From TrEMBL:
Pfam family for this entry, one: BTB
Organism per entry: Phyllosticta citribraziliensis
UniProt signal peptide: none
Designated name of the protein: BTB domain-containing protein
PROSITE patterns xref list: BTB (PS50097)
Entry-linked SUPFAM superfamilies: POZ domain
Cross-referenced PANTHER family: BTB DOMAIN-CONTAINING PROTEIN-RELATED (PTHR47843), BTB_POZ DOMAIN PROTEIN (PTHR47843:SF5)
Residue ranges annotated for the BTB domain, each copy included: 37-105
Coiled coil: none
């Protein structure tokens, strides 16, 4: 096995931050609770971490294959990871023991920011096939992004560029969130030249935004059609006797909507789940405003 790490990333995507003493101590304290070690992991900054084969193999298919197959790592008990940020490898190793990791950043060092720490941890989980680490890092990343407030918009293009350069198109856990967030905030992001470069560079990201835009346009068109139906009915309906209250109950989310006066619409738009359904899919009827008792739907006057 010539190398256990993926090919070199471009300089702009690699994180060269040296791990802080607090982060190193956190990993040492985690590992030392499990007794004598039998595996050495080497990082790009020359660091060596002595861990347990059994622990890392249980968490990662990559480690399991490397250490239990016909590769040099299985015989030497040493795995070199020269192409990965040392902080990401520390987060990965700590996660294999604790199912969580500590985020430490060093003020003044390039790329040493919480969002970048979690993003690199996610990429490490993708490369070394640790799905639970990806889910955990995604939660930490998204919570950090929401904590940044308006300043977080400038981070989105950087995060997209790093993630899409470092993970395959089939890795959807964090990509789906970034695409959904970008679409919801598209008006603000389109004013950022760096985001426009990302749109032009990554075809899969651009296609995702286009699909979301088309789906939203179709939803708005369906809503416009329904509003036109309602307006026509209100203009042309005939009232008989005292006013009644007609209700509809959505077949999807059971949201209850009422309309003043007798009504029978071809389509009904639900403000609860934002779906438009044919009226025959809905439960509907009316109430007598004086007695509060329900009346048969066949008693409702229609135009």
């Amino acid at each position: 096995m010539a190398s256990t790490s993926p090919p070199d990333k471009s300089e702009s995507q690699s994180m060269s931050t040296k791990p802080s003493p607090d982060l190193l101590w956190a990993l040492y304290a985690t590992i030392s609770q499990h007794g004598p070690t039998d595996l050495t992991v080497r990082t790009s900054d020359g660091g060596e971490f002595h861990v347990h084969k059994k622990v890392v193999c249980e968490r990662s298919l990559f480690f399991n294959n490397a250490l239990n197959g016909p590769f040099k790592e299985a015989a030497s008990g040493v795995i070199d990871m020269p192409n990965d940020p040392p902080t990401a490898i520390i987060a990965l190793l700590q996660f294999t023991y604790k199912r969580e990791y500590d985020c430490h950043v060093v003020e003044g060092q390039p790329d040493s920011e919480p969002w970048r720490f979690h993003l690199d941890a996610y990429i490490a989980g993708s490369i070394y096939n640790i799905v639970s680490l990806k889910h955990y890092a995604k939660r930490r990343f998204t919570s950090t992004m929401f904590g940044l407030g308006p300043s977080g918009y400038s981070v989105i293009p950087k995060a997209i560029s790093i993630l899409y350069d470092s993970t395959p198109d089939t890795d959807r856990i964090l990509r789906d969130w970034l695409e959904d967030f970008s679409f919801l905030q598209l008006g603000k992001l389109m004013t950022d030249p760096e985001f426009l470069v990302v749109m032009a560079t990554f075809e899969s990201f651009r296609d995702a935004i286009a699909r979301a835009t088309n789906a939203e346009r179709a939803r708005v068109e369906r809503l416009d059609d329904h509003v036109a139906d309602v307006q026509w009915f209100v203009k042309n309906r005939v009232f008989h006797g005292p006013p009644e209250r007609v209700y509809y109950r959505c077949p999807n989310c059971r949201y209850k909507m009422t309309l003043n006066g007798p009504s029978q619409l071809k389509t009904v738009y639900c403000v609860g789940c934002k779906q438009v359904s044919n009226d025959y899919c809905w439960d509907w009827g009316r109430y007598d405003p004086y007695t509060g008792e329900s009346a048969s739907t066949t008693d409702i006057e229609t135009v």
